[in-house]
Amino acid sequence: MKVIKFILLLTFALISRAHAASCAEQPVVKQIRSEINFDVRNEKLCQTLTTLKTVRMKASRFKSKMNRGLLAKGYWPYLRTQGLKAIEISNSPSCKGIYGFVDQARKPWTISLCPLFFDKSVSVPDRMQLILHEARHFSGHPHVECTRGTWKGVKGGCDEAITNEGSYAVSAESMARLGMRARNLSAAARANAKLLALSYAQNRFNQPVFTSGARAVYLASDEQEKGFFFDGKNFYPAPYVEDAYVVSRTSAVDVFPKYRSEPAYVLNLYSSTHAVDEKAPKGTLPAEYNRLSPSERPEVIDIVTTGEFLCFVQPHQLDCSTSGKKKASIWLEKSIERVFTPEDLKVKPARHTLYIVDREGKMILVRLKTNGESSVSEVLNPIGGIKGIAQLKATRFGLRKDGILMMEKSGRWAPVPNAEGARFDSLSRPFIWSPQLISGE
Ligand SMILES: [Zn+2]
Fold first, then answer.
1. CA 134 / ligand 1 centre spacing (Å)
2. Total domains present in the chain
3. Distance 206 CA to ligand 1 centre (A)
């Protein structure tokens, strides 16, 4: 009876959003405190440690380049083996821009957590990962400068390779395991862990973990009433999104409705049921969209970035801003079909330029300046009947106006062979995704 009560309590603590009792009151916390010294009054830290201590994994193994067996014995046994004795909350000047750090001269082994660790934008799986990552530094594994990817040029932002089994190898593996195998975590938390695993694998190693990338696009077919994830090779079933725009950026795929009275939401990339969670997580663009009254809501067709600019594409308007400050607005009489980046078009990437194609196929070059000025000029459209472009596995794919998916082969466009003549109505921009993480649901 006592055991059942204990399990119920734990399950409640793990899945419930509204905690009736504080974390410190859970029986398991006493046990954690006997092993690791930390301030139990810190609710977020207490919950992170409780989850690390109590997470249960399915016995099945999964094969992945992200799984190097560093956490094969479990998350808590790993922390014990690394020698973690204390976690403290730091306000030191070295906290600037980082989540936490380890001082190797200091014993017993202590992780110092910075204010950023507790920021509301950091998810529970990410906090778990951060502690596991820091504990790896007890056995050294200093970082190196990133030579590629999102953090290129950032000193100490990367590890050389996942095979070095440093802290970022722990980050990627811990999240992949959690996403694939955790029994007592919500589906949303597991989906988040999978995205984190891929984003660490993609961006934190100078030798890429996935040589041909772990990216996909979303394709919708109104005729078939089906949605697909396409990774450049195969088509995988995905939720069918109707009367809405699928707007993807590197690691987020948002859905904005065509009718402003409807809510926007975040597309769940890793749900086997493809259930749509209409409650957009706090801090996401859909959540901000939903906070506006229907008359204030913009019609978001797409979101594009160029240099420092983030641009919202609306049917007749392109609104660009740099970190929310300098704004440039371009208005078009003819409605916008698609906005392309220099990379999409394989033209020399001039800074802060975009190419608008209108419904008649006219191409307009937009030059943005960081002082908020902008200029437009009509240019020759080099892609004619292609209405969407995405690069996957080093190949360019294009959606032809008639809905046929094309691929580029030695400079020429040809239909994708295994699309079996299917016609698609929309092609998103690429986002982080891998079929490696869809089994085991
Ligand atoms: Zn580190």
1. 6
2. 2
3. 15
* Average pLDDT rounded to a whole number, residues 102-129: 95
Domain boundary among 176, 203, 230: 203
Classified as helix, coil or strand, 99 is coil
Q: How far is the CA of 143 from the centre of ligand 1 (A)?
A: 6
The confidence score (pLDDT) of residue 8 equals 40
Residue pLDDT, tens place only, 156-169:
999 999 999 999 99
pTM: 0.82
Its domain, for residue 307, covers 215-437
Task: Give distance in angstroms: CA of 244 to centre of ligand 1.
Answer: 40
Measured in angstroms, how far is the CA atom of residue 137 from the centroid of ligand 1?
A: 7
Could you tell me what percent of the chain has a pLDDT over 90? Answer: 70
On whether both 179 and 230 belong to a single domain, the answer is no
Whole-angstrom distance, CA of residue 266 vs CA of residue 202: 21
Q: Report how far ligand 1's centroid is from the alpha carbon of 146 (Å).
A: 13
The C-alpha angle 313, 316, 321, rounded to 5 degrees, equals: 40
Residue 434 CA, ligand 1 centroid: distance in Å: 25
Q: What is the pLDDT of residues 9-38, one digit of tens each?
A: 444 444 444 445 689 999 999 999 999 999
d(C-alpha 190, C-alpha 180), whole Å: 7
Q: Identify the band that residue 418 occupies on the pLDDT scale cut at 50, 70 and 90.
A: confident
Q: Same domain for 193 and 229?
A: no
* Exposure string for 14-36, b = 16+ CB within 10 A, e = fewer: beeeeeeeebeebebbeebeeeb
CATH (domain of 268): 2.120.10
Distance 342 CA to ligand 1 centre (A): 34
Confirm whether 210 is domain-assigned: no
